[in-house]
């Protein structure tokens, strides 16, 4: 009986844990002009940047991206796992921005 109770507690403990994927996020540096996202076919990110003939969706919890709209900048961030979705661009979590 003790084994059944212990096994039940172990299963309950493991099923209540959540895991967050943190590995595999690669740092990226982009240079270009930040613009508001506007209407898109994909629904993630708040802004975008065109860099090296490629568009990236941007989001940030550290930097107020609106302060850099229509300005040429160099930004540093990490690619968010799970993106792009379908035909959308890669999503970047911006951590730093500097003027070009």
Automatic annotation (TrEMBL):
Assigned keywords, A-Z: Signal
Top-level lineage group: Bacteria
Leader sequence residues: 1-20
Protein name according to UniProt: Lipoprotein
């Amino acid at each position: 009986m003790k084994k059944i109770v212990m096994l039940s507690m172990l299963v309950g403990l493991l099923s209540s844990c959540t895991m967050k994927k943190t590995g595999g996020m690669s740092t990226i540096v982009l240079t270009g002009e930040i613009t508001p996202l506007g209407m898109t076919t994909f629904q993630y990110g708040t802004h975008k940047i065109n860099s090296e003939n490629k568009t990236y969706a941007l989001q940030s919890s550290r930097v107020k991206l609106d302060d850099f709209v229509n300005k040429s900048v160099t930004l540093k961030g990490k690619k968010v796992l799970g993106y792009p979705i379908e035909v959308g661009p890669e999503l970047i979590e911006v951590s730093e921005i500097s003027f070009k």
